[in-house]
Amino acid sequence: MSGDIKSVGFSPMVLFDSLSKRLADGVAGRGGLEAFCQFFDQIDWVQGLAPLRQSIKEKTVHFEAALSKCVKEMLKRPLGIRENEVFDLLGATCPKCGFKTTLWRMLDTDSKCPKCDGTLTPTYVLIAEELVAKKIEASPEVVLMYGAYDWLAQAYIDAYKAFRMVLDAFAQLLGWERFRVGDQRLRNYLDEFFLGRFAGEQKIAREEKECLQFLVRGNLAVIPVEEAEKLLRLGLSVVKFGYLFQVLGASGAKPHYYETLTSYNILYDQLNAQIRRSISQLYGEVAARKFVLKKSLGGYYPPCFLVPKNTWQAGQLSGEILLEPIYRLPIFPKADFGALQAVYGRLGAGKTFLLSSIICYSILAKRETVLVPLNDKTNSFSLSVMPLFAYDKHTEKLVHMLEQVLEVEPQGVPCLTITVLRKNEKVYDEEAHPPTVFDRVMKVDNSQSFRIDFDELMDELKETAEIYGYSQPVGIITFRNLDRYYRDKNINVDVQVATNVLSEFDRWRRGHLERPSRVVIDEVSYLAASQVVLYAGDALRAGATISDFIKESRRNRVSVDCATQMPVEIVPELRNASTNIFFRDLAISRDKMRSQIDYLLGSLQLSDDYLNEVLAEMNKRGALPKGFWFWFHQPKHAIQLIRPCPPTFMLYDLNRSPKSLYKLYEKRFGQKILLESWKEVKELKQFKSKTDVETQNF
Questions:
Q1: Do 388 and 649 contact (CB within 8 A), yes or no?
Q2: CA distance 187 to 287
């Protein structure tokens, strides 16, 4: 059978939900075997299922027919008529090989068995002899139901075998070693029915309901068919003898009921303990999902690992997943399309981590110059001058992944942090904004209109890059975010600065297309909101600047990476022009136009459109493990699941200030980075072109 779930022709979520419903029906006892058989009718791709399905139908139909003969009105009829009906309904059996047929065929073959040449005997006679041997009254109805419950027991056994085939088939489609219930809600639902918190079906005997539950729980625990058959036959025998003496009043049946019940309870407890341990272990495996990283090409930095689609496309991740490194992530512009990356995720989803991986990849693979016109509020990219080093358990894991798995040495990247200050403005919080040898200060008269000499910035970056072994201006130029928002004046100085930086870079870039370049904007909604809510004038101007920049980015051969919590709230140009979209944990709302995930999925044109429902449901349940992202590549209309690799450079730590991180580095490696004060930071003069000077003189 194919391992691709698309080959079955159904939506994975619909298929998986349908199976989940049958699991719930089984433990609740709703509809008995009918619920299973109806589902088996639709699973046509599982080989060997059809004969079992046919057997279940035949035996349950015969059982229902037998049951109808035992109602009060039918029992009032003459004994001879009832005996004839039972003789006809039970047919004939070969005692030697067990072959069964009708009385008419027995007469046609002169009672000769077509399989073993044995002698065919009316089943009524064989059962009556067995009842007499057990000292049980052998009325027609007692004989009938004694045989009918044996049919029902066989139907349960066939259902157990069929359900095992179906679960194995689903596990194969999903790339699992065995079928598992990963949805905590469904697990709770199954447990609550099993423990009696929910009543479930009331029309069947207790032992039969337990057998129905065993069809589900026994298969989830992979109880062998031989053990399952023994339990199911015992369980239905308890129901059989109980029916004979309680309903039909057959004398002699009661002792057999208690004897069989004792044997059943002992075996049921044994298997139930085994099931409980197995399912607990299975649930533990789901909770402790194992990801195995495929051996990478030593020394080459992959920005992320790819999760095989068949391990998540049904809405649940399988237990053990082999992740494959991606060395050629298409995040660079080409002649036929640009490279605009949009990263959408809630606060704390790991957007900056993903952006850092992309930045690290672009520098190591393409030697790009990365411009960050507005750093995040933690100014995390300023820490990239330091290599990632282990100082706690979290960083130990990241360093281990770099060194032992990726075989990439942790290393910082060249970075200049530019702090733009207005007249008489100072940096006060040196714990959050410590001065370093990689900092530069630019003092301006007006944060809304100032010029930048990018040639000078490139020279400064090149000088820094030479320390790291690069001969070109490779690395990051980031502008410090001092979070200068003045509510009373409705002004955001850092947004004004970023807008100018982007405009100046756009102007400079048109004459300097030879240098591979990238622009990164963390939390782009500050600069390019779709609706101007805060600092209206600044945001409106910034949004227009970014819209224009995006339109020219392909022509200017610039890659652009943007991150935000809310795709609904950013300018349409950014959403529509995205080459790659990374998203996870987006907000949900009943209003589809305000629901971030619904809005985003509605804008994507997936080649596998059946995945829309899967993505929406996984987002709703928060099914993605921490650090994993959905990745949509627009040119191919394809969706994948990825896990970003840690960058080789230092990341921001929520529990430590930037200054303390620099001190840790200095102590560990003996290199001086911190300066005594901001007065020691080199100042860059505001750029004035010849035209600017002439205009000023005029």
A1: yes
A2: 12
Number of other residues whose CB lies within 10 A of the CB of residue 105 = 13
- What is the C-alpha separation between 79 and 82, in angstroms, rounded? 5
- For 311, phi then psi, to 5°, come to -90, -5
By CB atoms closer than 10 A (0-12, 13-18, 19+), residue 525 is buried
Which strand (E) or helix (H) includes residue 344?
strand 340-345
Q: Which residue has the tokens 């447990």?
A: 191
DSSP 8-class letter at 123:
H
Burial class (CB in 10 A: 0-12, 13-18, 19+), 596: buried
| Residue 523 near residue 563 (C-beta atoms within 8 A) | yes
d(CA 470, CA 16) in angstroms, rounded, equals 53
CA pair distance 85, 74, nearest whole angstrom = 11
Chain centre to alpha carbon of residue 363:
30
Q: Which pLDDT does position 75 carry in this prediction?
A: 87
Among 370, 478, 485, 499, which Cα is nearest to 433's? Answer: 478
**String of DSSP letters for 339-391:** -EEEEEE-TTSSHHHHHHHHHHHHHHHH--EEEEEE--TT-GGGGGGSBP--S
Query: Quick one: pLDDT at residue 154?
Result: 94
| Nearest C-alpha neighbor of 492 from the set 500, 483, 501 | 483
Angle of the 184-194 helix axis to the 12-28 helix axis, nearest 10: 20
| Residue where the block lists tokens 């530019």 | 418
* Tokens coding 277: 């341990």
DSSP letter string over 27-82?
HHTTTTHHHHHHHHHH-TTSTTHHHHHHHHHHHHHHHHHHHHTTSHHHHTS-HHHH
* Amino acid 678: pLDDT: 94
Round to whole Å and give the CA distance between 535 and 543. 12
Distance CA 478, CA 458 (A): 12
The residue type of 174 is L
- The tokens for 472 are 């070109």
Kindly give the parts of the chain with pLDDT less than 50.
1-3, 528-536, 690-691, 693, 695-698
* Torsion angle, alpha carbons of 392, 395, 400, 401, to 10: 150
The Cα 400–Cα 403 span in angstroms is 5
Q: Three-class SS of residue 523? A: coil
What is d(CA 229, CA 232) in angstroms, rounded to the nearest whole number? 5
Listed residue (390, 610, 545, 380) closest to 476, CA to CA: 380
Query: What is the pLDDT, as a whole number, of residue 333?
Result: 86
Q: Across the chain, how many H-helices and E-strands are there?
A: 22, 19
Residues whose CB is less than 8 angstroms from the CB of residue 532 and which lie 6 or more positions away in sequence, other chains included: 539, 540, 543
